[in-house]
Design a protein that fits this description.
Layout: E1 7-10, H1 16-27, H2 37-42, E2 47-52, E3 55-66, E4 69-77, H3 86-100, E5 105-110, H4 113-117, E6 122-124, H5 132-137, E7 149-154, H6 158-174, H7 193-200
The structure holds coenzyme A.
Length: about 210
């Protein structure tokens, strides 16, 4: 970038050292879970950042458990950049990314519940989540005194989810090759509402300033 204005974008390989440093700084206070540089690099497609003046000033990631569930993790905005809508913009970008991937629901465990409630999340009981989620909590310094709140947001409507499933089924059939070696005729892929939204999908911007 050349103008120095903050810009929301997917993370790139060159961001990894900075992301690891941001996460490490906030993991000490238990605001986010620790993540190694290797782990960040391995899941880089699921990270979004805000860059300003050539430096990453905010970040967040999606931790995907499967087609039904993903977690918003590692949400951090540099102290001087807070209160300008960047935290919310990252959350919206992550929710949008989950929607494009056909993930039905996102959740978070946070002390910043207000931010998520303003972004369409609803508080829920931590007990509704699968046990594997709590394995990662073992790494948290506040594991025995957790003060985080669980919140969820449904990303896809039932109709969207059904359309996504139908397109996936069609894709499987369209690429199936019958015994005689010819593709099955007459199966044309039509884009789902989700796919259409993805094509025309806008990148979230801060709601203020
Ligand atoms: C939490 C954090 C990401 C917020 O970033 P931010 O850019 O200041 O947030 P935004 O400006 O987008 O705020 C959006 C809304 O959420 C609210 N909000 C922000 N931080 C909040 C918090 N800690 N608690 C409750 N509400 C909060 C804001 O008041 C704002 O509400 P409004 O739209 O009614 O004015 C930032 O303070 C941070 O990095 N904290 C340290 C790391 C951390 O705790 N991360 C969260 C882990 S899930």
């Amino acid at each position: 970038m050349t103008d120095g204005l903050p810009r929301l974008r997917p993370a790139a390989a060159g961001d990894v050292p900075r992301l690891a440093a941001m996460v490490a700084a906030h993991a000490r206070s238990g605001d986010v879970l620790p993540r190694s540089a290797e782990s960040i690099r391995a899941g880089l497609d699921d990270w979004w950042v805000v860059e300003a003046g050539g430096e990453v000033i905010a970040c967040g990631s999606l931790w995907v458990y499967g087609p039904h569930l993903a977690e918003v993790r590692s949400l951090i905005v540099d102290a001087p950049a807070r209160g300008q809508g960047w935290g919310r913009a990252i959350v919206e970008a992550l929710v949008d990314a989950a929607r494009r991937r056909g993930i039905r629901r996102v959740f978070t465990l946070t002390r910043a519940a207000g931010l998520f409630e303003r972004t369409g999340f609803h508080p829920t009981d931590k007990a509704v989540f699968p046990e594997k989620i709590w394995k990662d909590c073992q790494q948290c310094p506040l594991h025995d005194a957790c003060d985080e709140i669980a919140l969820t947001r449904d990303v896809l409507t039932d109709a969207d989810a059904a359309a996504t499933d139908a397109v996936a089924d069609e894709a499987i059939e369209a690429h199936a090759v019958p015994l005689e070696g010819r593709p099955i005729a007459g199966l044309a892929l039509s884009p789902s509402p989700v796919a259409r939204a993805a094509r025309g999908g806008s990148i979230a911007r801060p709601h203020r300033r």
